[in-house]
Amino acid sequence: MTVTPSESVPVVRPSRPLSTRLLIALLVTLIVTGWVFWSGYFILRSPSGWVGDRRFVPVHLSSIQEDLAKYHKEHGVYPETLRDVYDELYTKPGEKQTDEDYNRLITVYRHPVEYERTGTGWQITDYGADGKPGGIGLDADLVVTDKMNDDQVFRELYSGKYNATFEQVRTDDSNHFRTLFVTSLVFGGLVFAVTFTVVGSVKKEHIAATIVSVVLITIAAIIAGGAIMMAHTVASGH
Questions:
Q1: Which of 50, 58, 130, 234 has the greatest number of CB atoms lying within 10 Å of its CB?
Q2: Does CATH number 3.30.70 belong to domain 54-162?
């Protein structure tokens, strides 16, 4: 067959074998999706995350510290019990406090705050979610003394030993772990589809397009996840 100048010869674009495309797509999907899942999990398990109520503990303990300081300023000594503080500071003449009025004396997990007067100072203990001495993660005990300021309490809380365990994150009633897992699966599917489609060609511009697409999907996933968690926080009043 003779090709005349007016005829064009079809250009056969090089393409990767199906097995290679699958391997590349799976590898990219595992790496990127794994990173996104771990990032979300790390946020959930931290003391400032949405699992458990550890993020409210410093504020609660700080309010008790302030009340103890007020009592000490007025009396020159610290009280024998925390109830003495609130009877002094929050009870009007002729009124009698009920158990519901002592909400400041319980932890965010609805367990009593343990208070002890130690010579010239004091020590308060938050026994965590289980309300018992010892434990790890959300159950870990947080001990605060009159020698510690707010910064030291925060540093202690964020030292790492108060991070929720995997089981605590997985079984938390907020269902954020389930949301993170499902979102990661959907996100992984998008990454796989984009990668598998674009890497069919060996052209450099297609490889660049794959990278850009994956980055954009990652950014979108992070924004969506943050928006979902923020909406939950606002709705729950936290």
A1: 50
A2: no
Backbone torsions φ then ψ of 135, nearest 5 degrees:
105, 170
pLDDT class of 235 with cuts at 50, 70, 90: very low
Rounded CA-CA distance 104/82 in Å is: 9
Contact 16, 206 (CB under 8 A): no
Give the model confidence (pLDDT) of 45-89 as tens digits: 888 777 777 777 877 888 888 889 898 998 888 988 888 888 877
Q: Which residue has the higher pLDDT, 209 or 36?
A: 36
Place of tokens 């009593």: 112
Which amino acid appears at position 108 of this protein? V
Spell out a b/e string for 51-73, using b for 16 or more CB atoms within 10 Å of the CB, else e. Answer: bbbbbebbebbeebbebbeebbe
How many whole angstroms separate alpha carbon 68 and alpha carbon 86? 9
